[in-house]
Specification:
The structure is a single chain. The chain is of the alpha+beta class. It contains 3 helices and 5 strands, in the order βββββααα. The chain has a 3-stranded antiparallel β-sheet with strand order 4-3-5. Strands 1-2 form a two-stranded antiparallel ribbon. The radius of gyration is 13 Å and the shape is globular.
Amino acid sequence: MKVRKTPQRKCIGCGEMKEKKELMRVIRETSGEISIDLTGKKNGRGAYLCKNEECLKKAIKGKGLERSFQMAIPASVYESLEKEFSLSGTK
Protein backbone atom coordinates (compact mmCIF):
# COMPACT_ATOMS: atom_id res chain seq x y z
CA MET A 1 0.00 0.00 0.00
CA LYS A 2 1.05 3.56 -0.65
CA VAL A 3 1.99 5.59 2.42
CA ARG A 4 0.38 9.04 2.53
CA LYS A 5 2.49 12.04 3.37
CA THR A 6 1.19 14.24 6.14
CA PRO A 7 1.23 17.95 5.30
CA GLN A 8 3.88 19.94 7.17
CA ARG A 9 3.54 23.62 8.09
CA LYS A 10 5.87 26.06 9.83
CA CYS A 11 4.83 27.79 13.05
CA ILE A 12 5.24 31.58 12.76
CA GLY A 13 6.12 31.74 16.45
CA CYS A 14 8.85 29.17 17.03
CA GLY A 15 9.67 28.41 13.37
CA GLU A 16 9.42 24.62 13.78
CA MET A 17 7.95 22.41 11.08
CA LYS A 18 5.08 20.30 12.44
CA GLU A 19 2.16 18.33 11.12
CA LYS A 20 -0.72 20.51 9.97
CA LYS A 21 -3.11 18.88 12.45
CA GLU A 22 -0.91 19.88 15.41
CA LEU A 23 -1.09 23.59 14.52
CA MET A 24 -3.78 26.25 14.77
CA ARG A 25 -4.56 28.20 11.59
CA VAL A 26 -5.05 31.97 11.63
CA ILE A 27 -6.55 33.39 8.45
CA ARG A 28 -6.94 36.73 6.72
CA GLU A 29 -10.18 36.69 4.78
CA THR A 30 -10.61 38.60 1.54
CA SER A 31 -12.46 41.30 3.50
CA GLY A 32 -9.29 41.83 5.58
CA GLU A 33 -10.74 40.31 8.76
CA ILE A 34 -8.37 38.12 10.77
CA SER A 35 -9.72 35.11 12.67
CA ILE A 36 -8.88 31.60 13.85
CA ASP A 37 -9.86 28.80 11.48
CA LEU A 38 -10.70 25.81 13.66
CA THR A 39 -11.69 23.62 10.69
CA GLY A 40 -8.60 24.38 8.59
CA LYS A 41 -10.77 24.71 5.47
CA LYS A 42 -11.92 28.33 5.38
CA ASN A 43 -10.99 30.49 2.43
CA GLY A 44 -8.23 33.01 2.95
CA ARG A 45 -4.51 33.43 3.49
CA GLY A 46 -3.39 31.20 6.35
CA ALA A 47 -0.64 31.35 8.92
CA TYR A 48 0.01 28.59 11.44
CA LEU A 49 0.77 28.69 15.17
CA CYS A 50 1.53 25.95 17.68
CA LYS A 51 -1.31 25.41 20.11
CA ASN A 52 0.43 27.09 23.03
CA GLU A 53 0.61 30.65 24.31
CA GLU A 54 4.41 30.79 24.15
CA CYS A 55 4.38 30.58 20.36
CA LEU A 56 1.69 33.27 20.22
CA LYS A 57 3.89 35.54 22.35
CA LYS A 58 6.87 34.85 20.07
CA ALA A 59 4.73 35.61 17.01
CA ILE A 60 3.61 38.90 18.54
CA LYS A 61 7.15 39.89 19.49
CA GLY A 62 8.63 38.85 16.14
CA LYS A 63 5.70 40.32 14.13
CA GLY A 64 5.04 36.97 12.49
CA LEU A 65 1.46 37.77 11.50
CA GLU A 66 2.51 41.08 9.94
CA ARG A 67 5.06 39.27 7.79
CA SER A 68 2.68 36.46 6.84
CA PHE A 69 -0.23 38.71 5.92
CA GLN A 70 1.88 41.66 4.68
CA MET A 71 -0.22 44.19 6.56
CA ALA A 72 -0.34 45.97 9.90
CA ILE A 73 -2.17 43.95 12.55
CA PRO A 74 -4.25 45.93 15.08
CA ALA A 75 -3.73 45.25 18.80
CA SER A 76 -7.38 44.16 19.09
CA VAL A 77 -6.63 41.15 16.87
CA TYR A 78 -3.82 40.02 19.16
CA GLU A 79 -6.11 40.45 22.19
CA SER A 80 -8.79 38.29 20.58
CA LEU A 81 -6.18 35.65 19.68
CA GLU A 82 -4.94 35.60 23.28
CA LYS A 83 -8.54 35.11 24.46
CA GLU A 84 -9.05 32.24 21.99
CA PHE A 85 -5.84 30.55 23.14
CA SER A 86 -6.77 30.91 26.81
CA LEU A 87 -10.32 29.65 26.18
CA SER A 88 -9.09 26.62 24.27
CA GLY A 89 -7.02 25.66 27.31
CA THR A 90 -3.64 25.71 25.59
CA LYS A 91 -0.56 26.60 27.59
